Amino acid sequence: MKIGFLTSSRADYGIYKPLLDKLKADPQVSIHMIAFGMHIQSSQGNTLSIVESDGYENLSIIGCMPENDAVYDIAKGYASIVSSFVDFWNSNSFDVVFALGDRWEMSAAVQASIPFQIRLAHIHGGETTLGAIDNLYRHQITLASKVHFTASQEFSNRVEDIVGSSENVFTTGSISIDDLANLSLPAWPSVQKKFQITFEKFILVTIHPESVKVEMNQDFAVISFEVLSEIAKTNNILITRANSDALGSLYNKQFERLQVLFPSKVRLVESLGKLNYFKAMQQCEFMLGNTSSGIIEGASFKKWVVNIGERQKGRLRSKNIIDVSFDVNEIKDAINKVSGYEEFKGINEYWRPNSCEVIIKEIKKFVLR
Question: Matching CATH topology for 2-178+354-368 and 188-339?
Answer without folding.
Answer: yes
